Amino acid sequence: MAGQDHDGASRLVAMAWGLAAAPQRGPRRELNHERIVEAAIEIADAEGLAAVTMQRVARAFDFTTMALYRYVSSKDDLQRLMLDGIAAGETWAVDDEDWRAGLEQWTRIMVGCYRSHPWSLDIPLARETLLMPGQVRAVDAGMRAMRSLPATAGDKLGVLMLLAVNARGFASLGREMAREEADDVLATRHLLQEIVADGRFPDAQAVIESGAYFGNEGPDGRDADDAEDVTVALSLLMPGIERAFEGDRRAQERAAAPADPARDPEQALAAAEADLASVIALRKATQRRARDLEKREGRVRADRDRAKVRAKETAKEAAKAVAKKASHEE
What we know:
- With about 325 residues, the protein is an all-alpha fold.
- The chain has helices at about 10-15, 35-45, 55-60, 65-70, 75-90, 100-115, 135-145, 155-180, 185-195, 200-210, 225-245, 250-255, 265-330.
- The protein has 3 domains: about 10-85, Orthogonal Bundle (Arc Repressor Mutant, subunit A), CATH 1.10.10; about 90-275, Tetracycline Repressor, domain 2 (Orthogonal Bundle), CATH 1.10.357; about 275-330.
C-alpha cells in the first residue's frame, strides 16, 4: 500500500496512516509525525490546548518552528492529528457477543477518552479526522460490538453516531460542571434553590430543591460520580435501540446477510489477527475489572464486618438497658 499512488488524496490523512513521504530535508530524519503528536498531547495534557503551539512543540525536539512545518503543515493539522492520536491510543476492548454490553463499553471508552484529555473537546470535528486511523479504529470497535444486532451497516453507523454525540456531550457537560469558577459554589446553588422556592418554575422546582439538578455532589459541592449520568443515559438509550430493530420486517434479512465481505487469504489473516487482538484486549480489560471488583468487595466486606460489630454492640447495650430497667422495676 505504501508504494501505491495516492495523488489527490488528503496529505493529512495519508500522513495519519503513515503513507505520506517524510521530508527529504530536516534536522532529524528519524523524526516522524507520531512523535510530534505524542509530544503535543503531553503538552496539552499537562497545560491545556492553548499551550500547544508550533514553537512549543518544536522546542521539545530542540529545533526551529520552521523545521516542524516540514512535518506538519499547520497548527490545525496538528490538532486534528492529536484528536486522532488519543483515539488510536485506546484499546477498545468491547464485547462482540452481546451488543448491549459491547455498546455500553464502547460509549464508556469514548467518554473516558474525552475525560482523560479534556482539551480534545476544544478541537472542532472535521471530515478529515473521521478518515484517520484512530477514528476508523473506534468505528471498527463499535461495529464489532454490534455483530449480534440485526441491523444494516448504515443503521449501525447511525447508532454509533448517536452514542458518540452523547459521549461527547456528557464529557463536555461534565468538564464545564467541574470547572472551579468560585469558592462559593454551594452558596450559589442555595441561592437558586431559594429563587425557585417562590413557585415561578413549578416543574423544575422539585429537581432543583432536591439537589439532583446540580449532579451527585460531594461535601464540597463538586460532582462525586458523574459516571452515574452516563449509566442513566445508557439505560434509556439501549431499550430504544433494541425496540427500533425488534419489530422491523427487515431484521431477519439483516441478520441473514453476509457479515463479512469476501476476503483474499491475506485480508482474512489480517481480520483474524484483529479479532484475536480484540478478544485479548477484552480479556485483559475483564481481568482488570475483576481485580478491581475483588478489591471493592474486600472494602465492602470490611465495612459490613464493622457494621455487624456495631450492630451487635448496640444490641447488647439495648439488652443491658432493658435488663437494667426491669431490675429497677422489680
